[in-house]
Amino acid sequence: MEYDITKSKVISSLFWKLLERGGVYGIQFIVMVLLARLLLPEEFGIIVLVTVFISLANLLAQSGLNTALIQKKSVDDTDFSSAFYTNLLISTILYILLYFTSPFIAAFFDESQLINLIRLLSLTLFIGSFTSIQNAIIARNMQFRKLFFSSLCAAIIAGAVGIGMAFADFGLWALVWHQLTYQLLAALILLFTVDWRPKLLFSWKRVKGLFSYGWKLMVSAVIDTLYANLMILSIGKFFSPAIVGFYNRGEQFPNLIINNINGSIQSVMLPALSAFQDDKKRIKEMVRRSIVTSSYIIFPMMVGLAVIAKPLVIVLLTEKWLPSVPFIQIFCGVYALWPIHTANLQAMNALGRSDIYLKLEIVKKIVGIAILAICIPFGVHAMAIGALVGGVVATFINTYPNSKLFDYSFQEQWRDLFPSLTLSLLMGAFVYPIQWIGLSAPITLMTQMFLGVLLYVVLSNMFKMESFSYLLTTTKELLWRRKRKSNYSIHNEV
C-alpha cells in the first residue's frame, strides 16, 4: 500500500475530517453542557483525574506504531497485523498494572471512588488496540468519510446514554458510561466500515522498523501528556475536585474548538506531507499554507471566545460554573498558538525526524515544569497563566529546527501570522465593551457574537486578507468539483 496524494484528495479529506470533528465535538459539547447543568463540578473533577491515567496508558499501548504506519512509504498486512498484536500485548500488561495500582492512586488523591472507575475505564485500552490500526488505514488512504459516520453515530448514542443516566440520578457514573459507550460503538462501526481484520501474521523485524520511528513519538506524546496533565494532578492533590472541575471546564471550551479545526488539519497534514517528504520546497509551501489559513480561522475564534466567556458560561452552564471564566480566557491564549505547534511538528514527523521531535518535547517540558513549580505557590490562576507563558516559549522552540530543515524561520512564520492576529485583536477590542451596557446575558452573548463575526469578515474583505481570498476560492473550487462529479454521475445513469 503506497501513497496516492493529490490536492483535491487533500482538500476532500480535510473537508470530511472537519465535518467529523465538528459533528462529534458539536454533539459532545451539547452533551457536556447538559451534563454540567445536571451534575456537580466535583463529579467532573473526579472523572478528569481518571482520564489522565487512561490517556497516558493509551499512548503507551499504541507505542507510536499507528503514526509510524501512516508515515511509512509502503506497508502491507504484515505491518498492520504485527502492530495490532504488539498493541494488544502492551494493552494487557498496562491493564493489569492499572488494576492493581488503582488503590494506591485512590489513596494518593484521597478519593476511594477512583479504584472502580480506573478499573472499568481501563478496558478502553483493548478497544484502542484495534481502532488505532483502523485509524492509521483511514489516514493513509485519506478515507475520513468513514471516520465521520462511525464517530458521529457513536457520539449521538453515547450522548443519549450519558444524559439519560444523569437524569436518572446516576451522578458520576453517567460520565463513565458516556465515555465507555462512545469508545465501544466507534470501534464496532469501524469494524464494518474499514476492510481490515488482523491476520495470523507477525514479524519482529517489521515491529522493530516501526518502533524505531514510533518510539520517539510515543515518548514525546507521553511527556506531552504527563506535562499537560501535571497541572490537573497538582490541582487534584493540593486543591479540591471542584477546582479541578472548574479548571477542566475552562480548558474544555477552547480545547473543543481547537481539536475540531487544528486536529482535523493535523490528521490530514501527516499523510499529505509524508507523500512529499523528499521535496523540501513543497513541504515549506504546505506548512506555510497550513499556518496562515488555520491561524486566520483560529485567532478570531479564540479572541472571540475570551471576550464572550462570562455570558457564555451563564447561559450554557449556569452561574455555578462562573469560576471557570478566567480559565477559559487564559486557555484561549494557550490554544491560539496551536497552529504554529502543529504545522511545525507534523513537518518534522513527515520528514522522518522524530529524533528532533523528541528532543524538542524534552526541552519544552523542562521549561514548562520549571514555570509550573514557580507558579504553584501563587495559586491556580497563576498556574494557568504559567501554561500560557510556556506556550509562548514553545513557539520559539518548535520553529527553530525548521529554519534549517526546510528554510521556514520563526521570523517568517510570525510575519505570516501577524495580519490575522492584528485583525482578531481589533475585533475583540470592539466587541468586548458591549458587556458593560447592562443587557441580559443571552442578549449580550448574541450581540457580541453577531458583531464579532460581521466585523471580522468586513475587515478581512477591506484589507484583502490572503487567507480570506484563499478560503473563498478553495470553497468555490470544492463545490464546483462536487457539482461536476454529481452531474457526471447523473449523466452516466441516463
UniProtKB/TrEMBL annotation:
Keyword Chaperone present in the record's keywords: the answer is no
What's the main place this protein lives? membrane
Q: What is this protein called?
A: O-antigen/teichoic acid export membrane protein
Q: Which family does it belong to?
A: Belongs to the polysaccharide synthase family.
Q: Where in the cell is it found?
A: Cell membrane
Topology in membrane: Multi-pass membrane protein
Q: Kindly state which keywords UniProt assigns to this record, in alphabetical order.
A: Cell membrane, Membrane, Transmembrane, Transmembrane helix
Identify the GO cellular component terms for this protein.
plasma membrane
InterPro entries per the UniProt record, alphabetical: Poly_Biosynth_Transport
What are the TM regions of this chain, as residue ranges? 22-40, 46-70, 82-105, 117-138, 147-168, 180-196, 217-236, 256-276, 297-318, 324-345, 366-397, 441-459
